Amino acid sequence: MLGSTHGTFTTDLRARVVACGESPRTTVHGVTAAPGDQDVSGRPLHAPVPDLDRFFRPESVAVVGASDAEGRPNTGITRQLLAWAERVGARLVPVHPTRTSVFGIDCVPSVGALTEPVDLAVLLVADPLPVIEELAETKVRFAVAFASGFAETGEAGAAAQERLAAAVRRSGIRLLGPNTNLNAFERFREDLEGPAVALITQSGHQGRPVFTLQELGVRLSHWAPTGNEADLETSDFISYFAGRPEVGAIACYVEGLKDGRSFLLAADRAARHGVPVVAVKVGRTETGARTAASHTGKLTGADQVVDAAMRQYGVIRVDGLDQLQDTATLLARARRPHADGVVVYSISGGTGAHFADLATAAGLELPTLPQAKQDELHQWIPEYLSVSNPVDNGGHPVGDWRGRKIIDAILADPSVGVLICPITGPFPPMSDKLAQDLVEAAEATDKLVCVVWGSPVGTEDAYRTTLLGSSRVATFRTFANCIGAVKAYLDHHRFTTGYRSPFDEAPRTPSPSFRKAQALMRPGRRLSEHAAKQLLRAYGIRVPREQLVTSAAAAVRAAGLVGYPVVMKASGAQLAHKTELGLVKVGLTSASQVRDAYRELTEIARFESIDLDGILVCQMVGRGVEMVVGVTRDELFGPTVTVGLGGVLVEVLNDTAVRVPPFGEREARSMLAELRGRALLDGVRGAPPADVDALVEVVLRVQRMALELDGDLAELDINPLMVLPRGQGAVALDALAVCR
């Protein structure tokens, strides 16, 4: 546990920010956006930010269904809301049709009878729909619906939730829930200082461990339990929290995303503000996805796409709630690093070696300390011990004045940004003195000092008082959580330094290629290889010299024009896998071979009852690295771009990387770096290096195509894309395209 320690496309982004006090915006393709803030398809390029100040700090609260009758569930909720309203300085108005007062406060019989403006209405009713419709006539800005039995229960519940959401849209009210809870109205400690963690959860119970961090001295500022997200969603709260000055990090427990694009826009806003977002996102497995859907009624999304989209916008994805606590707290409170170097310092050489091994495997940089620094450390550490990094003090120096000298000397090195001291178990007085020295050194530096307190007991005074009482030392209980949090910390600051939003580079107007390509689209149909290659050509993607012919004589003439040797392939909209049917002939070098190939290809097609638009006579391209580049549509994020090893390897190895447009050259190169077979592009076994620049250019042109043809293109598969030796380009040897 970390103790006290001081950054695609769907059209369901319903940013009704006018009701929340923001400037008017226009609606294009069902998306609300300010004029000039839209991409080529009319989708918003900036996250809408609902003004949630009056949700978290209302001046007046109406409790619909308030009760003070003993034994009633609403009574306990009303009592908690009364206490919360008193803490935030809000006036509470009970609403009940038959009661004259609740807990001594005068009731009104209905929301229609409210005589003064109300910021927040809390609905303690089984069916919130009639109340929402009644509230539409008032000036209530926010409502909370606790009721369950909606999308989490299946089709009938989903239909009921859509009726509720439609009523909310008509009303102009912003709704939290349904299927939410009282977590937003918890008691937050006000005696804690420093940057805070803001919490967003779709399951209240899963947020409880993060909320409990307050008992270890970690400040929390907000808790948004989003429930089924009929209206207000995780993205809304990320956007809002990213602009709050007290928020140092946002911690999320996400079961499903309602809208992929709104999530990316919110993550982009957080990255622009330098606010880290740490998320547990369930649904990595089919079982997890199914369970999440039954809980909140959300789409979980293809996990590879979710994972890539989060990395693309700087969202730090973790798996466990303990990791969520540790990573979010460290990122909220640690200062910006001066350097990426990590030094491991320990009492035991074995401990240091073990930790250093794990840290290096995780990608942390453990620089060798300069010889001058090692000589300095050997003033206090015996010569026979290694101080190059990790630094082994041998134990005895920590018990006297030398311990602090060693720590200060390490922190003074300019290559060091983080000092980590794993203490695997209490060994008084050594461990007590070491903990105190680390705390005092941390107070005197702006560099990050981390301690791993490995004792399973956790009741030791050095841990409970010295370490957790520090506002500057990051204290962990496991090696893995410490390493993961430190890596996330360094990665986050690298990511946000000079951050340039992908949305800033998104095309605003269609290119000339778009107009050419749109004329080739056939709604609801698959394009033949020939037509698909014309689509690629429209976007400047190189294809082989080729001609489509409908006779053997024309095939011979075409071969002469294309140049021997040639490849001949059947071309038709029905054909997806030509090779398996024998509909590809390679390496033809004479007119007689071309005539024979034409007859054989057409006979096979006739036997298989395949309609052809002709036979392609193609240039035979030299050898290179076979890659695949494609476009598919994700249920949450819209068009996605995939690159990987092509040919038969794409199905055998499944070595691919995916991104959500828009993205630039750096992201395209990052995709290639993720591939296990990346070394093939550098040249192996005497093969020359491939033209990586040309491959990157194809990826960028395909992502432009995905953006501009979002409404027309369902799928694109360039396989293989032959990446020729450096300087010779890349050629799309085959292509498949499916229109929407």
TrEMBL record:
- Keywords, ordered alphabetically: ATP-binding, Ligase, Nucleotide-binding
Keyword ATP-binding belongs to the record: yes
SUPFAM superfamilies annotated for this entry? Glutathione synthetase ATP-binding domain-like, NAD(P)-binding Rossmann-fold domains, Succinyl-CoA synthetase domains
Q: Give GO MF terms, alphabetically.
A: ligase activity
Classification via SMART domains = CoA_binding (SM00881)
Domain of life according to the entry: Bacteria
Q: Name one Pfam family in it.
A: Ligase_CoA_2
Where in the numbering of this chain does the ATP-grasp domain appear?
A: 533-571
What name does the UniProt record give this protein? Acetate--CoA ligase family protein
Source species of the chain: Streptomyces zaomyceticus
